[in-house]
Amino acid sequence: MLRYDLETARYMPKRPRSHELEDLSRNRLHRIFEGIGWTVEDISKDYGEDILVRIFKRGSTTPLNFFVQAKATDNIARYLKKEDDAFSFQIDNEHLDKWSGLHEPVFLTLWDSQSDKTYWVCIQNAMAKLSSATNFKTRLTTRISIPRSNLLDDEGIRRLHAITSTRYKRLLQEQQGAKVLKELLEDELGGKVIYSPKQGVVMCSRPSGDLDVVLFDKIRDQVLRLAAKRNKSPKEAFLDAIKRFMRVADEYERSGEFLVVNERTGKEEKRKMTTNQLRSYLRTKIERYDEESEE
Question: What is the CATH number of domain 2-152?
Fold first, then answer.
């Protein structure tokens, strides 16, 4: 779409309405949340979340925060499912898969530009109501329902706060439970137990020097995928992955450089990296490991 610029006497690209709506929706949320003393931070669109909201109480910070993916429309009727009295919105499954692992709630908001009303739903709660047979890896998107009764008014804000508080309390309970179980295991085994829910790993070192490793969640799925692809047992696939990455770590420790393949030229070259570049490089290696041919 083009518009004519009188000053330069030439046609200029016109900003899409969808982009205008996105900014208007974000600005609307800024006004709502900042108006009650909470802080709002804009997030890069590459991550899926649009804003991070931190909850304050009488001017003091709290440990409570939540994410928002903000949507907007000039024609809200197109999303209405009359039989459910709700709006239906398609969300990328890549984002849903990531959000399901967050303890912070992620809220989907839908702003109607005609009525200036904003509707909302907690995405994790909405996902829990979907069929347990739903496989987010076999489809690109999933429809999330936003009840028409969920208005972002004073009552809606109170409910957002309650959902955020409940999920945080649940996290504290899970952490306390994990701590108790860890201590019981250490007493029973007489060794050290390392539990990392974020990485999906439990490691138990025994007095004999043996190390038991239990994998769960995404890393478990990744190891099973590797094992099937390479016709190995899960244990063999896991140990093979550890050895490969240890070689990468040893190489960096010796020289401060990595031997990488230049994607443009296809040639190997040594490259120094900052800490952030190193993290990004290793993250990419992990994501692509199951696609690489075995050395």
Answer: 3.40.1350.10
